[in-house]
């Protein structure tokens, strides 16, 4: 699926899709994750894990 198809299916603007697809972006909200998962016929799984101490 390309970004134009994502814009159409999710009803968001091209800059939003561009931000979501950026490897530097990590601030997805649950609503956005649910919408993307639905579009891809997938489920969302959230896990809380202990932080690694370096």
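Q: What amino acid sequence fits the structure above?
A:
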């Amino acid at each position: 699926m390309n970004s134009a198809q994502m814009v159409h299916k999710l009803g968001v603007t091209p800059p939003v899709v561009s931000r979501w697809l950026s490897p530097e972006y990590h601030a997805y909200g649950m609503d956005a994750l649910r919408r993307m998962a639905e579009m891809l016929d997938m489920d969302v799984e959230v896990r809380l894990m202990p932080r690694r101490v370096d």
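Q: And what stands out in the fold?
A: The two ends are 38 Å apart (CA to CA).
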